[in-house]
Amino acid sequence: KVLIVDFGSQVTQLIARRVREAGVYCEIAPYQKAEAAFAALKPKAVIFSGGPASVLEEGSPRAPQSIFEAGVPILGICYGEQLLAAQLGGEVQGGHDGEYGRAEVEAIAESPLFDGVWEQGRHTVWMSHGDRVTKLPPGFQSIGHSPNAPVCVIADEARRFYGLQFHPEVHHTPEGPQLISNFVHKIAGLKSDWTMHAFRAEAVKAIRAQVGQGRVLCALSGGVDSSVAALLIHEAIGDRLTCVFVDHGMLRQGEAEQVVSLFRGHYNIPLVHVDASETFLKALDGVQEPEEKRKIIGKLFIDVFDAEAKKIAADGRGAPEFLAQGTLYPDVIESVSFQGGPSVTIKSHHNVGGLPARMKMKLVEPLRELFKDEVRALGRELGLPEIFVGRHPFPGPGLAIRLPGGVTAEKLAILRKADAIYLDEIRKAGLYDKIWQAFAVLLPVKSVGVMGDGRTYDFVCALRAVTSTDGMTADFFHFDMNFLGRAATRIINEVRGINRVVYDVTSKPPGTIEWE
Ligand code: XMP
């Protein structure tokens, strides 16, 4: 196991992803809690992340001294490298030219860190630093340099301490993954035993131990997280899992049928399909304000789920005491906060996450340790069809927030058809997996058109597609114009009620991905 100590870098999670891709389990702890995390995890290696502070500032973050004395190898990245220098008796200075972006580094000594990757020549790396190490701490030597950082890679081979001025975890350092792999495998001697195959068996054991003879309820949405959680729990406890699929009527075309046939038909998992579309439509009648829509759906979802849970509790098989949740590792990681301060609510998100407070049940969270890409890999391991595994994110309130101006059964039907055609074209063009999320929005605007010899006066449909890595920032997807033309023609020809199609070219920020 590897402990990653976070000093507030934007890309600390990428370090964790790279370590795990190397087949080694790791956890992230904020630097303030590093000592306790070290004691709990008993790691065989430690990585210090980068961070926005300068070791020259008074009160800037430090690593616990005990970690240096624990006898485990340490890799310091950027701020982490400067910490090694500052805390072990070297020197760091500011005021030189910084290096931001692409740089070239050359190895100037042999090291297991460079094995098989960096023995010779110059290598492209991604840098982002102002300060630099100017005097090596005792025991260290410089093993790599760059034009603006004569001391760019440092090593104390005896203690197995390494420092990199650049970021090996980011995409722009092409050989970064191998350097990280060398650190965890060759230097720390760790084996590649973190695989989803191994995780599956461990997780099944852990679920059995936690649940005993109890029953588990799972709110299934059809998204990849709840689907994978349900499959895993079902493997562990069989029919003592009951899935509840609350169909709020705001799902995409064919989605409810797909979920029901996969879980009930294919996997034979007990599934209660609650068709509550009428109830939700009625509650949303005449509501236009996006936050109000979100709150109504969120609250009603919990009410409907709760009512269903009561029925299940009364079925004579004993009341379920556990609630399954598809919580992922990024939701669990504690972040290093320098400014703190309350953040503004842009949208009140609704998903099954709102359930635990109300249900007062014990939580089963088998995916707590996993990143999204690991959940997908686990889904494949469990035989979940690709159409579920690779599915774009879909918001809890569903199509309701893609109908600005208000939700009606008629508008829902129009939007569903347009959305299905758009996604069909995207799949046919082989673009689905290149896009983070793509969907249609039906605008509450009518425009005049001419079809055949007649005048039309119908709705405008907006198409949206974005690329993103985490949904926090996004760029609009640059389709080929011919593609957009094709999709628009099909939508207008095949969907009655739409006579004009526009494409949304807003990135996030300033836009958000969804329109409401
Ligand atoms: P925005 O629109 O805020 O969306 O840029 C970022 C990502 O979050 C999804 N989203 C939601 N997911 N419940 C969810 O589970 C919600 O209420 C919700 N609202 C937005 C959105 O689809 C995008 O992937």
From TrEMBL:
This is GMP synthase [glutamine-hydrolyzing]. It is an enzyme of class 6 (ligase). GO terms for molecular function: ATP binding; GMP synthase activity. It comes from the Bacteria. Its EC number is 6.3.5.2. It catalyses: XMP + L-glutamine + ATP + H2O = GMP + L-glutamate + AMP + diphosphate + 2 H(+). Pathway: Purine metabolism; GMP biosynthesis; GMP from XMP (L-Gln route): step 1/1. ATP binds at residues 221-227. Catalyzes the synthesis of GMP from XMP. Homodimer. One of its GO terms (cellular component) is cytosol. The keyword Transport does not apply. Keywords: ATP-binding, Glutamine amidotransferase, GMP biosynthesis, Ligase, Nucleotide-binding, Purine biosynthesis. CDD domains: GATase1_GMP_Synthase, GMP_synthase_C. The lineage of its organism: Bacteria, Pseudomonadati, Pseudomonadota, Alphaproteobacteria, Hyphomicrobiales. The keyword ATP-binding applies. The active site is at 78 (nucleophile), 167, 169. Residues 194-391 form the GMPS ATP-PPase domain.
